[in-house]
Amino acid sequence: MKDPINPTITEAWTRLAQLKSELEPDLRGWFDSDRQRVEKFTFDAADLHVDLSKNLLTDDVLKNLLDLADETDVLGRRDQMFAGDHINNTEDRAVLHTALRRPATDKLMVDGQEVVTDVHSVLNRVYDFANKVREGQWKGITGKSITHVVNIGIGGSDLGPVMVYEALKPYVKEGLECRFISNIDPTDVAQKTADLDPETTLFIVASKTFTTLETLTNARLARTWLLDTLRAQGALQGDDTSEAVAKHFVAVSTALDKVAEFGIDPANAFGFWDWVGGRYSVDSAIGTVLAIALGPDNFADFLAGFNAMDVHFQQAEPEKNVPLLMGLLNVWNVNFLGAASHAVLPYAQQLHRFPAYLQQLTMESNGKSVRWDGAQIDYATGEIFWGEPGTNGQHAFYQLIHQGTQLIPADFIAFARSAYPLADGEKNVHELFLSNFFAQTKALAFGKTEEEVRAEGTAEEIVPARVFTGNKPSTSIMAPALTPSVLGQLIALYEHITFVQGAVWGVNSYDQWGVELGKQLALQIYPAVAGDEAALEAQDDSTQELIRYYRENRG
Ligand SMILES: O=P(O)(O)OC[C@H]1O[C@H](O)[C@H](O)[C@@H](O)[C@@H]1O
């Protein structure tokens, strides 16, 4: 693998820094003086229509961002990723989530393995299983069909499935409900199982490593709940619980040996591979809960959507390559305009978990401060992603985006068609909703001048408080409707944006060593919390004090 390039020593970086120093943001003026601006900065990728024109972009900036991509060999690294090179060097692994959505007719040999064939053989097993559950052929221990599927996982084994389930609710089979247990806080299992009937409940234990404390603990709690409740209902007698577990527990993992150790029959387990990062795994067998809920056809459309964006990313020329342009734009915002965060504002209630999903995707990928050769980084990487659906956010935090002192680039996402049919007299509600999206991006870009505020008859002393400076960058992403395919495209778009930023910054976007220390310490601290005095004494003063507080108040 090639050494990473320090982006700050490239010629393009120097020119961009110069352009920044001369930049006088003026979206009003830029739109007035260039009637081609919208056309020039609006792009289509598969079904996504992306308008970058309300960003603080000029022709020169864009040209130099593309030069920066060139000098840092972003597209070379893209090709290495798609080909299965071990670009995740700290774990010596390929990064091949793109193989999960390739058509069955494709071929890709990686490390001596035909990966597309492997992918489709697991997919077919997942689809068979999903059909059995959907059609009522998969029976619980008392012969009843499944009505509730509970996915137990955390991080990438939770955020993707729950986000997609919420986003595609209109496609969920009637009479089937899915729930998602992630937190080790025991209230999560308690609340999500409280009104369930174990006879008709199926648990999917989803964990790439099958070592994650939260997931294994929750799986044990769920197993205890299942067996105890079945016993209490008289549906289970005797000591042999293996059949009940086999009929009510399946697993998804790359570690099938550990699945067996837990007591789940490997025949009821679906595998995937170490070249799928957890946060890139919703389109692997980790999506089994979705294949059940949505059905194999919709899941296949979802995968085809990812693939359409992959093909765009691989084939579109750089000047029209949407993930490349959006990734570079983020670099411009972070490294030259000083943005520390990035808002994602879906105007689609169904996407209410999308920002949380993106937080793992982007921040676990690019929250790094060394390059992939270990060199220390002295420029900003990994901005904070956050957001909530509009219009709710408008009544909460938009104030800061409009008038605060920080620059917060925002992605607005909206769909032309409402997901649910509206009564004839109510069609205007969707239009009112979309008007809010259009209005917000307009207000951010063009603001309201002192003169305009005065012209409204505003008392002079509050004119400054009512001025909107404008020049707040936003990107608008639209699609005809939120279908499985469009959602796949949207996820793949952000995966590749994240890739592009990581490639420019020279970071390995595919490891996550930063989550390890806390996990180690939790296990080390646990004896102290549970009562071991020597373990308590071994802690630092602050931690000791906090644990003592817990002990005094635990009741
Ligand atoms: O799927 P699992 O192996 O249980 O991992 C679940 C999650 O936990 C880890 O701490 C990682 O930071 C995540 O990237 C991962 O998605």
From TrEMBL:
Annotated keywords: Cytoplasm, Gluconeogenesis, Glycolysis, Isomerase
Active site per database record: 364, 395, 519
Catalysed reactions listed for this entry: alpha-D-glucose 6-phosphate = beta-D-fructose 6-phosphate
UniProt EC number: 5.3.1.9
Involved pathway(s): Carbohydrate degradation; glycolysis; D-glyceraldehyde 3-phosphate and glycerone phosphate from D-glucose: step 2/4; Carbohydrate biosynthesis; gluconeogenesis
Chief location of this protein within or outside the cell: cytoplasm
Subcellular location: Cytoplasm
Biological processes, Gene Ontology terms: gluconeogenesis; glucose 6-phosphate metabolic process; glycolytic process
GO molecular function: carbohydrate derivative binding; glucose-6-phosphate isomerase activity; monosaccharide binding
GO CC field: cytosol
Pfam families: PGI (PF00342)
HAMAP family from the UniProt entry: G6P_isomerase (MF_00473)
Family, similarity comment: Belongs to the GPI family.
Function: Catalyzes the reversible isomerization of glucose-6-phosphate to fructose-6-phosphate.
Protein name: Glucose-6-phosphate isomerase
